[in-house]
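Project standup — Tuesday

K.O.: blocked on the structure for the chain from last sprint. Re-posting the sequence here as requested.
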Amino acid sequence: MMYVSDLFPRWNESMALVVERVPGSTAYVLMDAAQLPPDVMPWMECIRHGQVWNVSEDEPEADHPEVCALLAPHEAAWIATLLENYLPRRPFAFVAIASVRPVNELVAGLSWCKHAALPDGKNGLLRFYDAAVLQMLPEALDGKNLAKVLACADAWMHVQRDGSIGVLQGGGRPGMVALSPRELNALDELGTVDRVLATLGKHGRLPVEADPFDAYGKLSLMATTLFPDGKADMGVLYRCGAVCLGVPMDDFCQQWTQNGPFARLRGRDERLFEVVSRWAEGYAQADEAWPEEKALV
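H.V.: unblocked you, prediction finished:
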């Protein structure tokens, strides 16, 4: 797979502009360590030496920082190496922030705001330190709740789904959000593709080194084709994705369309899996099969 080769230099250039626009701010990297190899850094030692702050220190997993939300100074030399090595492959493991607050106050605010009150009265975790989740928030949350989360820092920077750099403005007074049923449902629907990709990876059906932009783009197109109402069935996406995400993007886009052969098999799951599997095995000759399939739909 080919990654976005210039992502690291563009990240640094964008971060310099973000800090310049927030006078007196310090740049940090907020990491979702669970997305990185568990042995990528001696996290516990880094925390003991004050090189890293554990934003999840109030959580049961605090003794296992390799699965926590971690904060580190952006200018640290080892952070530059980490970003250069992993940003192209794990782009959503990193969120850069600029803040004028003292670091202890910043960590406390981030720790507090990651908790959310759910409609059923329970508490949940708002994983804004996962860049995939962070970029969902403007669409999923109402204005007041979004402002409460983003107020933890003065500016947020992340990699977007197409490999470009996105910036969200913060500032103000942070607070714990209370999610409405609509917001919770929106977050759930927007996160469907990510959950399917995570499950594919966990079960070895998606290569560890798969291009994250390519994989997300294909599965999103598949979800839109099969479930235009947005109510995607994770099981269907998993079974189809497991056999065809290796098809080149151009060939993939030609067939996964609203008027294409797979769209006409909506609701006929077993037939869909059969056709998708056959296409993935010999997609170069797939066009020859479509007249037959049209007669079956």
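K.O.: great, moving the ticket to review. The longest helix spans residues 7-21. Residues 7-179 form one domain.
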